């Protein structure tokens, strides 16, 4: 079993909690002393850093949401002088101002080590040639993974995004053995490789995929089409970026690095969830210097897994992410999650991996939900009776889960847009 930082990765729970508490106290004091936003929030709650005496005391601390980052744009949440910030990243800012995050030199070191830890955990070594096929620039996925590749000593191939055929050419010419990209793009790459008849020319053995939820069936297809082991990656720019949590070779839950993050799973009322109970992931950074965040609501839905991991790592595991809390659609008073729709679709063998949900409000004022669903190769017979039968089957099974009828549009494989980034599974036209 390979470890990057074995003492930390296999630390006894009591020692880990001692380390967390020490770092929590330091983080709260840093935020209170240096970030006016947190100083005022704690003052409003009647809390001071000295009130934090145990890990459970995190619940008396103020919460932070994405809107708080936007309101303090660009540098209002920094806890260090501007000259100590060596890098910034930012979200795309598609809704309002982007969220900006900053890093000290030590933050970059911490982040690089964390990603190196992830890559070694899935079996990468200095012998690997690692292609990083995501956006560089403001998006944290590019440089975040890149620095981790270099830190653990593999050869980094910063191919970025664009020109799928060129990406495949690079894989073959350079003997690429490991790949990082979004799962949506990985599926498109796999389809293209298959269509080009080049699957046998690849040297790939490891794939790391993140930035959006993806299914077990997608994992199976990627592993078969690319001849790899496919691993789930989780991160968010507000907590460094990629590498916050990662699957080990057991492929059963993501280890979240508790020496760097204090983890809470909260229900919609803000109460803690028991292991196995799904809720929103809320994180407190324990090692970030430039921009510490306290009780940050990630918007991502998951649950804690109670069992110990056979890999020997002692950090808690999170179940593969089930979607986003803010992805929930309210249609005619019914709560609908894309993950629910995906779960139903993936159990139907005639259905492919891609779908898109469109919600619209018709002139009579009622919300209508329609779902474009790609068929698998085996389903496309061209017979109208077969299509009608499949359409009704999908509609009935979705209605039994969602309690609301949706209109299903069956489309050929390859009809829905592929993307190098996150796939757009929800189109809500009601506010347009």
From TrEMBL:
Listed SUPFAM superfamilies: Acetyl-CoA synthetase-like
Subunit structure: Monomer.
Keyword Nucleotide-binding: yes
Gene3D superfamilies xref list: 3.30.300.30, N-terminal domain of ligase-like
UniProt lineage: Archaea, Methanobacteriati, Methanobacteriota, Stenosarchaea group, Methanomicrobia
Pathway membership: Aromatic compound metabolism
PANTHER family found in the cross-reference section: ENZYME, PUTATIVE (JCVI)-RELATED (PTHR43439:SF2), PHENYLACETATE-COENZYME A LIGASE (PTHR43439)
Keywords: Ligase, Nucleotide-binding, Phosphopantetheine, Phosphoprotein
Key word Transcription present: no
Name of the protein this chain belongs to: Phenylacetate-coenzyme A ligase
Entry-linked Pfam families: AMP-binding (PF00501), AMP-binding_C_2 (PF14535)
Residues of the AMP-dependent synthetase/ligase domain: 83-283
GO molecular function, one term: nucleotide binding
Organism of origin: Methanothrix harundinacea (strain 6Ac)
Classification via InterPro entries: Adenylate-forming_Reductase (IPR051414), AMP-bd_C_sf (IPR045851), AMP-dep_Lig_C (IPR028154), AMP-dep_synth/lig_dom (IPR000873), ANL_N_sf (IPR042099), PA_CoA_ligase (IPR011880)
GO biological process: phenylacetate catabolic process
AMP-dependent ligase C-terminal domain boundaries: 333-430
